[in-house]
Amino acid sequence: MKALVFNGPRDIRYESYKDPELGSDNAAILKVTKCSICGSDLHIFHGEQVMTTRYSEGVEKFCVGHEFIGEVVEIGRDVHGFKVGDKVLSSAGTGCGKCMACRTGRPLECPTARAFGLDAERNGGQAEFVNIPNADQTLLHLPEGVSDEQAVLLTDAMATAYFGARNADIKASNTVAVVGLGPIGLIAVELALLLGASRVFAIDPVASRRARAAALGAEVLPAGPETVAEIFEKTQGRGVQSVIEASGAKAAIETALKLVAGGGTLSIIGVPQPDVGLQVMPIFYRNLTVRSGNAPVPFLWREVIPLVQQGRLKAADLFTHTLPLSQGADAYRIFDSRQDDVVKVMIEVG
Fold first, then answer.
1. What is the pLDDT of residues 94-152, one digit of tens each?
2. How is the chain split into domains, by residue range?
């Protein structure tokens, strides 16, 4: 098959790769039709660290990508919810489906739980085909009333934004700040307003992304040292009750913590690097709640999908560029450079 393959930092190539095989009796093989690049894929592209793997230190070649939809072409004998020909979307990651954690609805606690496209043990879906372990928990039939673009977002971005908004304790009349306006941050802005926030401050260094947040109804500010002071002035010195950090960058997380009002909540959903930390003293003395972690994507679908089907959550026009799989290396360069007002890139596979 053809796939986008990690060959080293800033070296993702469209090339031939071995066809996937069913890795277990509860697995399925998916023929990918569409996929996209996530901001966390750029950590791999840059040779940074995701989980325990440092991609600058030399790893076996593997297929990248964890956001994809497609058609089931093969199933194992222990797959009961899907059949060949089903159109599906996949969670961005999964566990084994057999351990106690998976069987009791806690897949992130599975010893094998991780995202697709991190290594050759769990190749990703920026490819013509991909093996899906734990298929009954990992796949979902394409829902009625959901576009292909929204389905791709449901694999990760939309669920992660919802996870971040829910963890931020947003209540009616709360003030909210979203730091980082990539696709997940923009969806978080939309969700904050949907959940009843009275004001949403949206912060990002890229003007075109701020403009998108403003069109959603947010008050936008550039990232910079004056941003915290300006928001405190706008809130009469109180700060913001609920803050969602959707970047993972050290400066963004530091800014997000400074914005939280006493007794407020900071929700971190950006993927951090090892040098990122939090100061404990302001958290302790200001009685702050801090939450973070990976979104349990399949367990959020039942809450998020109705919002999409009812037209309350649109996540519209986030895919600014569409390229074929054969131009996947260009897709990474465009997304990484933020050129041409890119927000998110759709990759057409089959």
1. 988 888 988 787 777 888 888 999 999 999 999 999 999 999 999 999 999 999 999 99
2. 2-156+316-348, 158-292
**pLDDT tens digits, 221-271:** 999 889 999 999 999 999 999 999 999 999 999 999 999 999 999 999 998
Q: Determine the Cα–Cα distance for residues 54 and 253; give it in Å rounded to an integer.
A: 21
List Cβ neighbours of 311 (8 Å cut-off, separation of 6 or more).
Answer: none
Q: How far apart are CA 109 and CA 124, in angstroms?
A: 21
> Residue ranges of the alpha helices (H) in the chain?
39-45, 100-103, 135-138, 148-154, 157-167, 183-194, 207-216, 226-234, 250-259, 280-285, 301-309, 328-337
Element (H, E) at 299: none
Q: Identify the residue with better confidence: 110 or 302.
A: 302
Distance CA 303, CA 262 (A): 30
Helix (H/G/I), strand (E/B), else coil: 89: strand
Assess if CATH 3.40.50.1260 describes domain 158-292: no
| pTM greater than the 0.90 cutoff | yes
Strand partners, 35: 68, 347
Q: What is the DSSP letter of 260?
A: E
CATH number of this structure's domain 2-156+316-348, picked from the four choices 3.90.180.10, 3.90.550.10, 3.30.360.10, 3.40.109.10: 3.90.180.10
Q: Give Cβ neighbours of residue 178 (< 8 Å, ≥ 6 apart).
A: 185, 188, 189, 192, 200, 201, 202, 203, 213, 218, 243, 244, 246
Residue that the structure tokens 């403003």 belong to: 214
- Residue pLDDT, tens place only, 320-342: 999 999 999 999 999 999 878 99
- Identify the three-state secondary structure at position 262: strand
Q: Which residue has the tokens 């930092």?
A: 9
Query: How far apart are alpha carbons 213 and 176 in whole angstroms?
Result: 13
Q: Residue 280 and residue 19: Cα distance in Å, rounded?
A: 48
Element (H, E) at 320: strand 319-324
- The yes-or-no answer to whether 2-156+316-348 and 158-292 have a common fold is no
